[in-house]
Write a structure and sequence with these properties.
Alpha-D-Glucose-1,6-Bisphosphate, Chain A, domain 4, alpha+beta, single chain
Length: 172
């Protein structure tokens, strides 16, 4: 019974379930680059942003102007003196046309939650934490806030990268 009482708060972390709708980023913008240059710059961005572009690119269609990336992230936190490890997956879609690009980040899913060698259930992202939630809800919110920051960074980095003027390799 004592062990069950100790596990109860940890189970609360797992069962936090608040609907969320804003784990999606999208931007469509114009710029003075050809479709081919946007494609090349996007491929370079992917190569510089992920450890292995070959492992994350799931679909690459230069002719139609689309690259699909499946990425992943891991987060950890200590709760009740136990280290909880969370793994997430997400999708980044890059689209390109003449003088135009689109980026979408969506399909953010928790793929695993482990603690002390045990596999736990997954939790749903929490939005709009109002300060009146339980300790377990606040910890879940911290994990998802950190994840949102990481995904926002990918989004912002791409926007900055793609808007740089086309580089000329003729002077090297």
């Amino acid at each position: 019974m004592k062990k069950l009482l100790l596990l109860l708060p940890a189970l609360l972390v797992i069962n936090v379930s608040v609907s969320q709708t804003n784990f999606q980023w999208e931007k469509i913008d114009s710029l003075n680059k050809s479709k081919s240059q946007i494609y090349s710059d996007t491929k370079m961005f992917i190569a510089e942003s992920w450890k292995s572009a070959k492992n994350v690119i799931q679909n690459d269609d230069k002719e139609s102007g689309m690259i699909l990336v499946k990425g992943g992230s891991s987060k950890s936190c200590i709760y009740l003196l136990n280290l909880h490890n969370f793994s997430f997956s997400y999708t980044v879609k890059f689209f390109m046309k003449e003088n135009k690009f689109r980026i979408q980040i969506d399909n953010v899913i928790m793929t695993s939650h482990t603690c002390a060698g045990h596999v736990w259930g997954t939790i749903t992202p929490i939005d709009n934490f109002d300060g009146n939630e339980s300790l377990s809800a606040r910890l879940g919110n911290e994990i998802f806030t950190e994840l949102k920051g990481e995904l926002q960074s990918i989004f912002d980095s791409y926007l900055e990268y793609i808007k740089k003027p086309a580089s000329s390799n003729s002077n090297w």
